[in-house]
Amino acid sequence: MENKYLLQIKDLAVEYHTDEDTVYAVNNISLELRKGEALGLVGETGAGKTTVAKSILGILPKVQSEITSGEILFEGENLLALSEKKMQKIRGNKIAMIFQDPMTALNPIETVGFQITEAIRQHNKISKYEGQQRACEMLEMVGIPRERYNEYPHQFSGGMKQRVVIAMALACNPELLLADEPTTALDVTIQAQVLEMMRTLREQMNTSVILITHDFGVVADFCESVAVTYAGEIVEKGSVDRIFNNAQHPYTQGLFGSLPSLDSKERRLKPIKGLMPDPTKVQKGCVFCDRCPHATEQCAAVKPAPVETEPGHFVKCSLVKGAEQ
Amino acid sequence: MNPLLEVKNLKKYFKTGGGMLHAVDNVSFTLDEGKTLGVVGESGCGKSTLGRTVLHLLEPTDGQIFFQGKDITNPSRKELRQLRENMQIIFQDPFSSLDPRKTVSEAIMEPLIVRGGMSKADMQAKTRELMDTVGLAARLEHSYPHELDGGRRQRIGIACALALEPKFIVCDEPVSALDVSIQAQVINLMLDLQEQRGLSYMFVTHDLSVVKYISDDILVMYLGQVVEKAPADELFSNTLHPYSKALLSAIPVPKYPNNAQRILLKGEITSPINPKPGCRFAARCRYATEACSKPQTLVECSPGHFIACCRYKEIQEHKEDNENA
Lengths: 325, 325
Known about the structure:
heterodimer; A: alpha/beta; eight-stranded mixed sheet; B: alpha/beta; Rossmann fold; four-stranded antiparallel sheet; 12 strands
């Protein structure tokens, strides 16, 4: 049973320390990812999505951040216990990341071809020539002619740069790809191109993906399962079908109500009232109770445990059926 | 009755090293009182430039602008000051459009001070009233922008725009920088204000689901030109221009399962510097023929629905053939 999951996050908690406060960015998140699965990690700004991805890769800022509990098991090995030297062998090789902003993710003074070759040769003992050939193949795979190998990032448009970043991330054929808002900075027609390309590549290489996004439309398009994060916790997770058609948590329902729909004729949106809780304060009860239309006194006092409302569909709310009252 | 705003053949060219950049090319539209005109298109299509040129934040290269029946294409300084009382703008980025050294009340009061003619007590009363209107708590009066979240900052921007009780507001991507749950709050506020005060909006955005929700009429722009103009419902139910079709089909819809067929465009927006005559979309259009290299004119194909494509009839028939087959 141990090898059922490619990645298993158990009870991860991350804090950031500033001069005055402690920010509780991730609070006891648990997450599983099967081989070949694409999981959408959805949530608003400050929900802790990117912190989770950075914890997996071990690239949290060293001084300010602290992982206070938890394990991240990748192929059965706890990444948090590995030495930096061992992590370097995994990072970019078995686990790769696509960052949100393609404009800043590339080195402006090196050619794109060199940057891809560098990533390949970092992890594979091959000659410079072989590395270049592989880089050219990667460029072609993401739809960029190999003649552009010697061009610099500023000569590419935003969509092309993001393709270069994707080519670099996939160059070592990673087992797991962490895509942090990969299409947010792109226009919709370019976003459609990039998503289509990522889908094709995923099928070819059987890569598992964690897609971090705030856009439910992209999730519906790309993922098989969804985890909804709020204030550093996963409040609901399940298959795309169950989350989109049978959302149970009031926050998830609220998010769907906030989206202007293309088919509905309603004249008013139903926004979630209020704002995200202050991340420097520990929430005693449910993280969402301040904004929840159904909240009771019980909700503010006791932190709800995840309830499996139907197979594979977990909801962290004490008001759903099956939760202990 | 005259429309509130009428724009005829408006052009805005920028001089660049490589030649003339046609940011806005021959755009005409009218906007009635209390209505909303949505302007959509991808980055670089000239939608923001259009909004700014209408407000005289940029001087038009050619064309005419009428406001309340009066020609305001070349206003004197004095006329321009009066105009600005009636025409305001809400900017995209609530993080950079506010003066970081001004408190909330100072920022909102500034337009009143600039206009002059009010006592200090009156201005303070007016400021409080505005804060109340946009839903900012009175206790935030002395807060600085950095202490507030994006949604509240955007409310300050809206209060500033409303201070002089304008008739017309250009909204340049007012909700793009906000999270969905906050975005819905701000959109509802803008709709309420429109109902109460009979405001007219020009709503510039790349988010098509928001624009459908808020607009009466929609302009679709591509490389500085209007390719299609129609009432919102008509545009979405009877899309005619090949570019509009591709743009609408590229929106990721938060629905599962989603069987919508996606039209993938090849290539990216071409350069708007010294564009060739003829359809600017032709290079990416799968229906393009030789006829497309001639200049396209905007024709009314059904009441209120305008399209700039010489082949739209054939494309429509082609589609029907496919459906019958």
